[in-house]
Amino acid sequence: MFAPILPKLGIQADVVISAESVRSYKPNKQNYQKALDVLAVPIDEILYVSGTPWDVKAAVNFGFTVAFVERQTLASESKPAAKYTIKDLNELVRIITH
Predict the structure, then answer these.
(1) How many domains does the chain have?
(2) Residues contacting residue 3 through CB under 8 Å, at least 6 positions apart
(3) Cα dihedral value 49, 52, 54, 56, nearest 10
(4) Is residue 47 packed enough to be buried (19+ CB in 10 Å), middle (13-18) or exposed (0-12)?
(5) In what helix (H) or strand (E) does residue 8 lie, and over which residues does it extend?
(6) DSSP character for 1?
(7) Residue 39 sits in a domain of what CATH number?
(8) Sheet holding 84-86: strands in order across?
């Protein structure tokens, strides 16, 4: 779902790994481990992006740096502990290009 959006944002990803491609669904740690295996980079070089609080929590618990796309305003106690909280993918572009 994310790959077709990238060109519209003016960015290119080296790879997009989805739960569908892994055939396992979050919060299964197998999904996050697949990213480490495929990318073969240190965990601190991965930015996990999600619009759902439960996915953010699982990715943070795995050890990823996370950007939470807060499409609807959440009460502060409901917001996940992501490094970045953004309103849209344009903000994501600013984060990854600076």
Answers:
(1) 1
(2) 13, 16
(3) 20
(4) middle
(5) helix 6-9
(6) -
(7) 3.40.50.1000
(8) 47-50, 65-69, 84-86
pLDDT (mean) for 19-36 = 81
Enclosing domain of residue 85: 3-96
Rounded Cα gap, residues 32 and 30, in angstroms: 6
Q: In terms of residues, how long is the chain?
A: 98
* pLDDT interval class at 37 (50, 70, 90): very high
Q: What percent of the chain is modeled with pLDDT above 70?
A: 94
Contact 35, 21 (CB under 8 A): no
Spatial contact of 39 and 46, defined as CB atoms under 8 Å apart: yes
Task: Give the span between the Cα atoms of 97 and 94, in whole angstroms.
Answer: 5
